[in-house]
Amino acid sequence: MSVSTVASVQTVCAPLAVLGRDVTVPLVTGGEVTYAALDYAASAPALQRVWDDVAAYAPYYGSVHRGAGYLSQLSTDLFENARRTVTEFLDCRDDDQLIFTRSTTDSLNLLAAALPADCQVFVFETEHHASLLPWQDAQVSYLDAPRTPGQAVETLEKALAGRDSHGPALVCVTGASNVTGELWPVRELAAAAHSYGARIVLDAAQLAPHHPVSVRELDVDWVAFSGHKLYAPFGSGVLAGRADWLRAADPYLAGGGASRKVTRREDGGVDVEWHDSAARHEAGSPNVIGAYSIASACKALTEAGFDSLVAREQHLIEKVREGLAGVPEVRVLSLFGDDAPRVGVLSFVVEGWNSSHFAAALSAEYGIGVRDGLFCAHPLVRTLLGSDPQSQGECGAPEAAPGEKSLNAIRVSFGAGTPDEHVERFVKAVKELVADGAKWTYRTEDGRCVPAV
Ligand SMILES: Cc1ncc(COP(=O)(O)O)c(C=O)c1O
Question: Which of 129, 229, 238, 293 to mutate to test the pocket of ligand 1 (most atoms within 8 A of CB)?
């Protein structure tokens, strides 16, 4: 069933309770409004349920994997149970490993450090820098931006067919773009990778908070995501998947927890036996609250039901898209076209406006938090804008005159905790700013637009 069909047959559910839903912020023009957090793609607010679970556990907090005391035992159980919960959430294979990391960036760097010798890596230029950059020490091929999902598969197949060796290869691909929100054809790319003997890692940083991710169904070899984008902002992330490359690699960090036995040699050196399990790459004291909060978020999303969460999000996407379609000055950025299935992440430019100026006015005059810039995906934004994004421009004057190309973009993103009112206020604000201009004056400070007073 396609994403849009799910939306049309499901009753739209209420938003999930998140922290910060009642926070008010001052407006430069006077008064206060409830803050509209529309930057979920950067960091989503914590689910109330996650916060409550963490608060309930906090008095029982103790060291993991090392103490003999009751609270240490309890915390160790909690940490290992969290691993099982997230493994189930991702529908991993029985022999997969799940490693708790700091973030998606950390997970992908860990995998990059675990690549076998002479591994070739294939990555589309459209990736977030976290997926684009960790492979610099391998033989990496950057693939041109495709313009359809089918073209993505063709481009990958062509690149893999032209491989100069039959050694190990890895494809890294995102599930949903952090710029356009568009879904990538992960299952088809995985099939293509496997048919050429390559493996594939899925960057699910923007997919997992919006859609169920099944490692088995998608047939990906690894998946990575971050807790703070999945309503669990306590500094943990996940890398899950095939154990063989991870077991064969040197520990990501050397230290306690990763080592099973350490002995002095007669020549004065030290011999180390490293663990083969996930502990091999989890040296040091693990972030038990981070892991527990991710598990709590996984349970909350599963219990809420992804069908109704997706339906609600599609309903919000429709509202934003319909609203923006009524403003001819707005151009929504897209790689795969208007009909491509997407998550609640949309980037756009406004003719004649500096994006930083526009975002600053949304915040200062309407209490709406969006993001402006290049979203850590410079090559993709450059392709979408058709301009060189290095210069940010001055905010006092529009950086792009009518008809000229913008240098950066504005991104609005939302999810399970977003009420209709936030996206309605956003659409109204865009219309008013375009029609009437900003009510306040702004200046540039450290490269960002801020209210002049
Ligand atoms: C698609 C994608 N991948 C990776 C990352 C990196 O995530 P983190 O900053 O949590 O490591 C992001 C963050 O925005 C992202 O959007």
Answer: 229
**What percent of the chain has pLDDT above 70?**
93
Residues catalogued as catalytic: 376
Query: Could you say which residues of the chain have pLDDT below 70?
Result: 1-11, 387-406
DSSP symbol at 218: H
pLDDT of res. 448: 82
Distance CA 187, CA 435 (A): 44
**In order of start, what are the domains of the chain with their CATH numbers?**
3-45+305-451 (3.90.1150.10), 49-303 (3.40.640.10)
- At residue 28's C-alpha, the angle toward residues 373 and 420, to 5°, is 65
Question: How confident is the model at residue 4, as a pLDDT?
Answer: 43
The pLDDT of residue 231: 98
User: Residue 364 Cα, ligand 1 centroid: separation in angstroms?
Assistant: 26
* Tens digits of residue pLDDT in 83-104: 999 999 999 999 999 999 999 9
Distance 206 CA to ligand 1 centre (A): 7
| Sheet containing strand 409-413, strands side by side | 330-332, 345-350, 409-413, 371-373
Predicted pLDDT of residue 323: 98
pLDDT of residue 232: 98
How far, in Å, CA of 357 to CA of 74, rounded?
50
Sign of CA dihedral 180, 339, 303, 47: positive
Confidence (pLDDT) at 386: 85
> Is the CB of residue 260 less than 8 Å from the CB of residue 237?
no
Write out residues with Cβ below 6 Å of ligand 1: 41, 103-105, 128, 130-131, 174, 178, 203, 205-206, 226, 228
How far is Cα 258 from Cα 276, in angstroms, rounded to an integer? 9
Question: Distance from the CA of 247 to the center of ligand 1, in angstroms?
Answer: 25
The H or E element that residue 423 is part of is helix 420-436
